[in-house]
Amino acid sequence: MTANCLYLFLFMQSFMLTLGKLAIETNCNVKGSSCTISCSIPAYEKLASWNRDNISMTSCTETFFCDKQTTLLYSISANQTGIYVVISDLTSNENGIKWTCTHGVDMPVSIYISIPNRDHKDESGLAGGSVAGIVIGVLVPVIIGIIIIVILVLKKQTKDDNVPINKI
Length: 168
Prior knowledge:
The chain is α+β, with helices and mostly antiparallel strands. It has one helix at 128-162, and strands at 15-19, 22-26, 35-40, 48-52, 55-60, 74-79, 82-87, 98-103, 109-112. The N and C termini lie far apart (99 Å). Residues 1-20 have low confidence and may be disordered.
């Protein structure tokens, strides 16, 4: 880890990371939904910016004006407490993207977007736990049936062995 940035991986949760004066917060964890990344700046006095994978997306001044406010996918804004990025439709293309917030001489703060894959199903369309439940539900009665049959057969054999043979 370098002194200039801090990396954080997210898995299905909102998280806030604070380092020095800057704090970064996000709720980017559900594919297909909108996502907001906010960078809190307690003492907004200098130029602040967002970089996406080391490419400048915007620069904002303390008068809350941002030079590239909106694109097709991203909406960028600022207010007295920080700068914000809203991703309108979170897709797998955002997976692993590093967003970095900078402000003056404060240490930059970075975050990686990580979207969990919730689409994994087996070919039958059932989740693994459902398949396991079905297998157990079928095997238990079969095993109990086999045990009952074995007990009955052994009991009959024992009964047959104890019957005296009558000779005429």
